[in-house]
Amino acid sequence: MRRYKIITLLFTIIITPTNFYPRSLTKPTTIIFDIPGVLFKENRAILRQKIGIRSLASYAVTHWKNPSTVCFDLLETMSKHPAHQPSVLLKFKEKIMPRCIVEWQQGYKTCDQVRTELVNFIEQMAEQNYFSSMQEKNLTQHIIKFIFDAQQLPELTKPVMPMVDLAKQLKKAGYQLLLLANVPHELYSTIKTNYPEIIELFDGSIVSCQTHILKPDKQMFKKLLDTYQLNPCQCILIDEKEESVAAAQELDILGITYQKKPLLIKKLKKLGIIIN
Predict the structure, then answer these.
(1) What is the DSSP letter of 97?
(2) Whether 160 contacts 40, CB under 8 Å
(3) Domains held by the chain: number
(4) Could you say which of 60, 169, 241, 260 has the lowest number of CB atoms within 10 Å?
(5) 222 and 254 assigned to the same domain
């Protein structure tokens, strides 16, 4: 019996390739990056500075609430109103987004239009005593007005430099790099204008504001595969959302949910990706 186990072990070692790939993944040639939450993120320091650290601290002390939580709760409340129910499910920070934000991401509405709708909804909810105080209502409105101001997007957006460095390494190693993201026109334009050296690392892009489709809709992934004539079994997706990773894997694209760069690199190396 022991002799049989040794022979089986030797046989396994001989036939197992050096680089192991999951059954649905052949040698990877293309790495697909998400934009928000992977390559770029919000600049929270600037946001706190612009809104006012004293205002935020005063509210937190008197109400024992996180102002950002109040804002996201408001957006989810808006999504439940018949006039604002989204046609497509879109979540941010685990909160369902209202129709205006979905349409902004799809490229059907501008940032200013969304801002106007949100401010009007805040006034409507204030009349219904939704807010616990006038301070809460004013602070929420101030945050919403600032975040959805197209002129502020350049300051509110910054690159995730460890991921930019990873993209450079992968590019140098010869991999095809592509972008696949839910992103509105104003944000995408801001990134292309302010960070051309990052966008130039990539060989192409498919973004929701141009396709009018949102991940995790599989049509978004099919659009990418068809446009760049990709073999899904040779692609790896790096995305911040588990539902997008799951949708990609249904099409034989191997997906990795991005958390931290060191963990991501370990997973990529296990898949045979060359990273110097």
Answers:
(1) P
(2) yes
(3) 2
(4) 260
(5) yes
The type of residue at 69 is T
CB 232 within 8 A of CB 225: yes
pLDDT digits (tens, 9 = 90+) for 41-77: 999 999 999 999 999 999 999 999 999 999 999 999 9
Mean pLDDT throughout 7-19? 37
pTM of the model: 0.88
The angle formed by the CA atoms of residues 230, 232 and 235, to the nearest 5 degrees, is 85
The answer to whether position 1 is within a domain reads no
Does residue 220 lie in a domain region? yes
Note the pLDDT tens digit of each residue in 155-202: 999 999 999 999 999 999 999 999 999 999 999 999 999 999 999 999
Q: The CATH number of the domain where 201 resides is what?
A: 3.40.50.1000
Does one domain contain both 49 and 35? no
Which domain does 133 fall in, by range? Answer: 44-155
